[in-house]
Amino acid sequence: MTFVITTGVLVRGILHTGGYYMRVIGYGLDEQFSIALDDRIYFEYVAVLNTERFAFKKNDIDYLLKFIKETANFITPQKLNAGSADPVYLKFAEAAKSAKADALVVHNASRFEFAKRFTPVLSPQGSFRETSVGRSLFFYITPDFFRENIEIFNMVFKYSIYDRIIDIIVRVDN
């Protein structure tokens, strides 16, 4: 499965430690689907995640962006004839269409009505309900994967379930 994820979904997945936004980020980190994007989207991620408005720790954001850069499928987008679509949103539709993504995962679907001509547009909840990603009842995080990505888990979970994950991993290792 391949998704294009809007910046709004990415930010909400980091800010909110529960729900479908976080699950999208978690499944992406666990590489249960691939993320497709182009340079425009990546640089928007960089700009937005590094704004003072969110006050994310720089090391956490750098680690997340490095992970995305190393694991995402960077594509060269084809221009779409989408009429008067806002270029802020058009780039996501162009990336999804060019990557032949299974879906464009968005926060506000009304802003992406134009994109439905080119690619499926889903909410984070819909990305689980309507794709094979959501058909698994749970996902397993291997101890090695957790250790290798500890900085991302610290950022995404904001320590809310951090101790519980460590407890689970210790039991799995033993």
What do you see in this structure?
With 174 residues, the chain is α/β, with parallel strands linked by helices. It has a single domain (2-173), classed as Rossmann fold, CATH 3.40.50.1010. It contains nine helices and five strands; from the N terminus they run E-H-H-E-H-H-E-H-E-E-H-H-H-H. The chain has a five-stranded parallel sheet, sandwiched between helices. Helix 1 (7-15) packs across helix 2, helix 3 (39-49) packs antiparallel against helix 4 (58-71) and helix 4 (58-71) crosses helix 8 (150-157). The chain starts with a strand and ends with a helix.
What topology does this entry show?
Layout: E1 2-5, H1 7-15, H2 20-29, E2 34-37, H3 39-49, H4 58-71, E3 73-74, H5 87-99, E4 103-105, E5 121-122, H6 124-129, H7 143-148, H8 150-157, H9 162-173
Parallel strand pairs: 1-2, 1-4, 2-3, 4-5
Helix pairs in contact: 1-2, 3-4, 4-8
Q: Based on the structure given, which CATH architecture is correct?
A: 3-Layer(aba) Sandwich
Fraction in beta strands: 5-15%
Number of domains: 1
CATH superfamily: 5'-nuclease
Shape: globular
> Any idea of the CATH class?
Alpha Beta
Helix content: 40-55%
How many strand elements? 5
**Low-confidence runs of at least 5 consecutive residues:** 135-139, 159-174
- What sequence of helices (H) and strands (E) makes up the elements? EHHEHHEHEEHHHH
Mean pLDDT: 82
Cα-based radius of gyration, to the nearest Å: 16 Å
What's the N-to-C terminus distance?
A: 33 Å
